[in-house]
Inverse folding.
């Protein structure tokens, strides 16, 4: 499940590095920077979240299928 750590790592990076740095910058420059950063980072974050969701479903499907086959084996 390493892909579910991707979004968590990105948010952790933002909290640890970006917040203290942005506090030192004037507000008008910070707002321009944030707007540009969000536009640039949006595809990356959406891809990371989509990958985490797909991986979760991909891992859950074989587990659910395995449970179904065990139940049918017990019934017979």
């Amino acid at each position: 499940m390493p892909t579910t750590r991707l979004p968590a790592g990105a948010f952790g990076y933002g909290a640890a590095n970006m917040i203290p740095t942005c506090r030192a910058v004037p507000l008008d420059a910070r707002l321009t920077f944030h707007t540009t950063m969000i536009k640039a980072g949006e595809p990356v974050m959406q891809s990371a979240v989509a990958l985490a969701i797909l991986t979760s479903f991909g891992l859950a499907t074989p587990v659910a299928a395995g449970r179904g086959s065990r139940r049918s084996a017990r019934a017979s």
Observations:
- The two ends are 34 Å apart (CA to CA).
- The mean pLDDT is 78.
- Residues 16 and 44 are 19 Å apart (CA to CA).
